[in-house]
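tool=predict chain=A
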Amino acid sequence: MEWDKKSFIRGKDFVATMASLASAGFGVMAALAWNEAIKAFVTEYIRGPGGKITSLFVYAIIVTTIAVLVVNSLAKITERLGGEKKL
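tool=predict ok
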């Protein structure tokens, strides 16, 4: 049987793609879990006289802060590994 470099590369690409998709899927699951946890925290401890609007703004600020920190961290890691900085 002859070794086919193109098939080998395609196989590696397939595995890399599947790993990326699985990672993204688990990332979405984790994000949804954190979403619910933050909502419960804000509802339980921050909802006060302002009611629902205040808790929604606090929730939005918390989620935005976490998103910015994660995206910046990922961009730095990608840059250190020699990847393209897209942000």
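The chain has one domain: 5-80. DSSP finds two helices and no strands in the chain.
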